[in-house]
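Query structure, 217 tokens:
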């Protein structure tokens, strides 16, 4: 069973999500929270696999909560930001803080369930309708911090190439077609690259690529 923590300031939203998710058969809602600080406490106590996180909540927003939860590293639950706005400042802040992806509140029920399953399996995601827009916006907003010492050098030429194509918005299948290799080969290179840079999933790998200057301006 995939254990999920629901975080939203509206009780009716949490109730609706609970019914929807528990009808999936392989998802168990283990807890709820109505603000960021409560989400951090419940995540530490309940140890869910995925946290469905609203971003705008009185009493403590989801951005700070996402950052606190993500500080747990590889053992931390994946945070799925569920938002009304696809290009919200809070969304970008949450991704930079360590969220594994985001999806829109008006998505189809099956899309939400599929997103939770992907995150539970270690796959990050961004809502497919806005993936390239999100990546473009990351590029526009990117600062120029000091790259992580040794991180870029640790990647092989092929790993660097695949991470760059991923950051450009390509799927594994599109990368495989571009490089004339099998999709499984792309996945293997990407897994090794993620291990080297300490990224938990594909989304955080894209964030890392922009933050460390791998993507040309």
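Result returned for the query:
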């Amino acid at each position: 069973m995939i254990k999920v923590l629901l975080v939203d300031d509206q009780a009716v939203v949490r109730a609706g999500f609970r019914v929807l998710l528990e009808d999936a058969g392989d998802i168990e809602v283990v807890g709820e929270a109505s603000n960021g600080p409560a989400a951090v406490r419940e995540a530490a106590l309940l140890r869910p696999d995925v946290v469905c996180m609203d971003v705008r909540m009185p009493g403590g927003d989801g951005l700070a909560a996402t950052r606190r939860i993500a500080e747990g590293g590889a053992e931390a639950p994946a945070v799925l930001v569920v938002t009304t706005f696809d290009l919200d400042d809070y969304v970008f802040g949450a991704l930079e803080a360590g969220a594994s992806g985001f999806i829109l509140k008006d998505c189809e029920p099956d899309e939400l369930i599929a997103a939770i399953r992907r995150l539970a399996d270690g796959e990050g995601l961004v809502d497919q309708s806005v993936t390239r827009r999100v990546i473009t916006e990351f590029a526009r907003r990117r600062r120029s911090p000091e790259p992580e010492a040794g991180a870029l050098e640790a990647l092989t030429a092929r790993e660097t190439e695949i991470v760059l194509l991923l950051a450009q918005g390509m799927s594994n299948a599109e990368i495989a077609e571009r490089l004339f290799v099998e999709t499984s080969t792309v996945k293997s290179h990407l897994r090794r690259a993620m291990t080297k840079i300490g990224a938990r999933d594909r989304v955080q790998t894209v964030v890392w690529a922009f933050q460390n200057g791998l993507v040309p301006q």
